[in-house]
Amino acid sequence: MKIGEAFYATVTTVTKGWTRVQQKKLRDDARGERALERYLRGTGREPSIKDVALEVMPDAYEKASGEGRYPAHARQIMYQARPLILARTDKPLGKDFDQYFTQTLLPEYLRRHPEEMAAWDVVYDARGHLKEPHTSRVISLGTVDVRAYLASARKSSLGDAATIPPIPMRYPTVGPDGRYRHVLFLEKEGFNDLLEAAKIAQRFDLAIMSTKGYSSVAARTLMEQLPGIRFFVLHDFDKDGLGILHTLRHDTARYQFGRRPDVIDLGLRLADVKAEGLDAEPVFYGRTVRRALGRYGATAQEIAFLQGHRVELNAFTSDHFVEWLERKLRAHHVTKLIPDTSILGAAYRRAVGLHHVNAGLADLGRAGQAVAGETRIPPHLDRRVTALLRAAPAMAWDTAVARLAADADGTGRKPDARTALKRGGDGAQGWETTDEKSPHPMKACSVMRSESVEVVNGKGMNPGTGPNVCPDPALGRDR
Hints:
The protein contains 20 helices and 12 strands. The protein is of the alpha/beta class.
């Protein structure tokens, strides 16, 4: 082999990779730049979608949350991450990328970076509820609700129950009268936490109403039965979003309005998408979509756009969404509610009276704490409570304690038989005494009138009508 040919072969072999990369760069400049970058770094591996997603996650969260000012829904973070990912990889994201991102990639990033995650406020939709027994407290199983519940539980102390809370000063209302004139309707529940953080309901005196998808018959019944209320609707700009808006304004096979509610479309519409610079995502509908969109009131331009694209409300960053929504509400003259002078006067008088009552409650609370501190705890209180709960399984333990305390004279001593019988007549039955020589010891359980229907010895009874029953009479005897 000649020297020239050998030199050419050597150079060609050494620069083979470089040549391939340069050719790729000429065919596709964007792809070529990334490939060249990898080659110069000494890596020939195309980064995976997962690699890139985890790399851009901090930037996506910062943008979605308005630099940490507001909570960011997982889907909002996904919308901000998607263009960053597409700019760094040539691989298609796939039709289920939103689920993959919110349910796999984002949780994995949060697990890998617990210190960073502590400063983030990432929220997911509530899926289900927890209801406490006896208190009727219901907790939605969403990120913010669970966080608040756990914080309250940690701060709570079972020993802090001796104080008397003041009567709330808020004027009592049920329904819109004196409380709100407008309702903000959202087709999804994922924005509730953001609306709460921005105090939209409080600052505009808005009721917030949300559904998961199309409104139920109950939701439309409520809207119809609230005359004089304006309903401002927020929805995605897609076939279903416009369909949800349409069902709030028109009769369907399942529901026919007797009185059509005052429904105002706040968006999203194509004009909003263009004005706010929101990113669209590809979508495929069947052949009938044009007819459905026309029936829902879409313009010709909107129909053309929606045949291949859609835009979710989640395309907004949190701060952008709040600013846009406030502009919309102000454009429709949504302001704070101030009731007429008669209600204002009644509220003023009530507030003066409550200030006086609450001052007295504070004094009563201190006196009650003094009495409570001097009270002798009855012997075997746990056994007495257990006996009551066996007789009335639906009763709460603190209700049982209150019943027992109601039959004491303030010192923890049991009353005489006459006092016990007298108190039994007002629904505060409790310790029932007999002569110490009687073969039947004092009973520490009874049916309490405050419970609606209770089970005694396995049988349902109307409260207060049946005999006093103690599953274990020996539990009631002082030893």
